[in-house]
Amino acid sequence: MNFGQYVKTLRSEHNWGLRNFCRHVGVDHGNWSRVESGERNAPRDTELLEVIAKTLKLTAGERAEYYRLAIETFIPKGIIK
Fold first, then answer.
1. Rounded to whole angstroms, how far apart are CA atoms 33 and 22?
2. pLDDT at site 81
3. What's the pTM value of the predicted model, to 2 decimals?
4. Is residue 55, in this structure, part of any structural domain at all?
């Protein structure tokens, strides 16, 4: 599972529609849809990542996975396995 899939799953579990979620966290829904589909990387803005984590009310375990997957989007494929 990649970052976008993970966030989409968590967003859906918390009953956040895409547009409402994006309005709440302050991102463009078109761009965020591309993140969730894997066409774009996770945001690099740590404040935005934290707003999203708080909005989704992530547990400690979910938060660790969330940040791990976010970081992975910036590491070239083949470096980590």
1. 9
2. 58
3. 0.87
4. yes
